[in-house]
C-alpha cells in the first residue's frame, strides 16, 4: 500500500464515490501544491493520481477529503463543493500515525479499529483496547460529572473539541440539554471573562487593527476554504457582560458549535471571527493576561474602514452565499452594520433578529394558554437595545400581518422602557434612531413598576442586560393585572437575568408564564412543578442558517424570521403544552432545526432569493439529509 493511500480517509458515506479502488486499496486523488508561495499568490494546484509521502504533517500534498459531500436531493452545491479551487497559501495534508492522533478532525482515539491501527501506522501508539464511540461518550460524561466548577467542564469540552471533533459533537448532540449550559450561556460568559487565563489554542480568526490592509490575506490563513457561516463579534457587548474586547471570541466559537450540533452545519464550514479594535474595559487593559490590543476602542472612520475591509474581503474570499452572523456588537454598531450590509451581503444579526424570532415563537405558543391574538395583548419592554427593539418590531410585523393594520398602528400596543424611563414622544429628539418608532404619546414615567401600573401590559419582556430588575413589586403588579402574566427575563447570562424563574413563579403565586434567556431548572411551588422555558436564540439561528445555506439564499428577509418563528411555534406539541411548555425541549432540536430550515428555505424560494435550483420537493427531508453526522467514519 502506498503510504499516501494510508493517509487518506475514505468515509462510508458519499465521498467514497469520488475515489476508485485499485488493487483492493484506495487510489487517492491528490493535489500537489508548491510550498513557499506567497500568501497573496498561491501557485495553482495540480491534480495527480496517487503519490507518495509517508506520515504527512507538512508535506506537499493535499488530499481531497471532505465530509459527506454527496447528499440526497437534486440540488447541487449544498456544501459549496462546486467551489473547486483550494486557495490556502500552504498545503493541507491528512496525517497518519502519530499526527493522525493529533488531528482533531480525524482522530478517533481508542475507537480506531485493529484494521485502522494497522493501516494507518497507529500500532503501539494506542493501548490495546478498542472502544466504541458510545463508550467514549459514556466515559467523558462520567468525567465531566466529576467537575464541580462549570468552567472546568467548559475547558474539558474545549479540550475535547481540539482533540477529537466528532466525539465532541456526538457528546453534545446526545446530551444537549445537559451540555448546552456548559458550551453556551451561562458558562461561556464566564469563559469570555477569563479567556486570557484559560486560553490555550486559538479556535478562530483574530482580525485586529494591525491587520488593516491585509484582511484578505488573513482570511486565506484559515485552513478551510469552503466556509458557509461566519459568526463575528467585536466583543463590545458580550451577552449582558459588556465590553470584553478580544476575549469575546468564546461567543463565536460557542455559537458555531451550536450551528453544527443543533443545525447540522458541518464544522469545517464554520468560521469564528473576532474583530479587535481595542477595548474600553479598563480592567482588561490592565490585566497582564489580556490577549487583545491594549488600546481604547477605535470608533468612527477607523472602525468603519476596518469593518468595510472585512466585509469586502469575506465576500471576495467566500463568495455571495456565505452567511455572516453579527453577534454581540454594541447597539450603535449593530443596527448600522445590519442596515449597511443587509443589501449587499447575506447578513443576520442574532441579537436583533434571532432573539426576536425566538421570542415571537414563544409568544405564539404562550397565547395557547392565555388566549387572544397578538393584537389583543399589550407589551412592555425593559430594555430598548438590539433585542428589545428587534423583538418589538417583529411582534408589530406579525400583528400587522394577522390583522391587516399598518405596522405603525400595531406598534402602538408596544411600549419600551430604557434607562431613562418610558419612551415617550417628549423624548423623541434625544432618542437614538432605533428607539424612535417606539415613542408614543404619554407622560414621562421613570420607574418600571410605575410603567407597569399605568400601561397595564399583559406581557413583560426584559432585555436590559441588567440583572434583578424585575423586582417583587414589578412581578406583583403584573400578577395583579393579569390572571396569567407573561414574563420573559431574557438577559444573559444567568447573573444578568431580570429575575429568576423561582421569583417569577413565587411572586405571581404560580400564575406566570415564564421564559428566560439562560436556563433555569425546574421550580417547585405549592406542590406543583414548573418548567421554565428558555427563550434563547439558540432555538432559531442554527436552523435559520441551515435554511439559508441549503437554499443558497443570497439575502436575509424579515419574512424569513417570521417563517422561522412559525416553524418553531408549530413544533410545540400537545404533550409539551400539557406540561406547561411554550418551547419544545432541546432534546429534539435537530428535528426542530430541520423544520425551521425548511420553512426559511421555502420562504427564500418564494421570495426569489434562493439560488439552489430546482427547489427540492420535501424541504424537511432535504434539510435532514444535509445535516452533519458526528458518527465516526471508517477509514480504509
Ligand atoms: O448568547 C446567548 O445566549 C444569547 C445572545 O445572543 C445574547 O445574549 O447575546
Ligand atoms: Mg448574542
Automatic annotation (TrEMBL):
Which reaction does this chain catalyze?
A: oxaloacetate + H(+) = pyruvate + CO2; (S)-malate + NADP(+) = pyruvate + CO2 + NADPH
Question: Which terms under GO biological process does the entry name?
Answer: malate metabolic process
Taken from the UniProt entry, a GO cellular component term is: chloroplast
**Which keywords does this chain's UniProt record carry?**
Metal-binding, NADP, Oxidoreductase
**Where, in this chain's numbering, is a divalent metal cation bound?**
327-328, 351
User: Which prosthetic group or cofactor does it need?
Assistant: Mn(2+); Mg(2+)
Under the heading NCBIfam families, the entry gives: PRK13529.1
Give the protein name, as stated in the record.
Answer: Malic enzyme
